[in-house]
Write a structure and sequence with these properties.
Length: 128
């Protein structure tokens, strides 16, 4: 859907005899959108699991791989912005899941603290 299969496919094919393909017609936006037009109803890992299980049910496949990423404040150092990415593989035939996660400070996420006149300027700029 976002072209990530072009990155993931060579990595999977290197070690597994599997074909990576995007399920056409499956709308992942109902689980939440990256820009929050549709907010997630659950935390990232639960959203990822539900999205992947729904895709497997919808497609009739038994092995699936999906990811879920988000930007936000660091859990311990809230003044730092981080990118958190989860990747999950679920095999419903054999009943297991594998989760990989990475957190990075290298992000284009932007936040600002504004005071006084800057607050008014920021609010005008943001249309508030």
């Amino acid at each position: 859907m976002h072209g990530k299969e072009h990155i993931i496919s060579p990595l999977i094919k290197k070690d597994l005899p599997a074909k990576v393909e995007v399920i056409q017609g499956f709308n992942t936006d109902v689980f939440g959108t990256f820009a929050w037009e549709v907010q997630r109803k659950e935390l990232a890992l639960e959203t990822l699991r539900n999205k992947l299980l729904a895709a497997l049910t919808w497609s009739g496949e038994t092995l699936g791989l999906a990811n879920e990423g988000s930007f936000g404040p660091h859990a311990l150092y809230s003044f730092l912005s981080v990118y958190l990415e989860h990747v999950m593989l679920i095999d419903t035939l054999h009943g297991f899941e594998i989760i990989g996660s990475e957190i990075s400070l290298h992000t284009n996420f932007l936040s600002a603290i504004v005071l006084g006149q800057l607050t008014k300027d920021f609010r005008c700029h943001a249309g508030l």
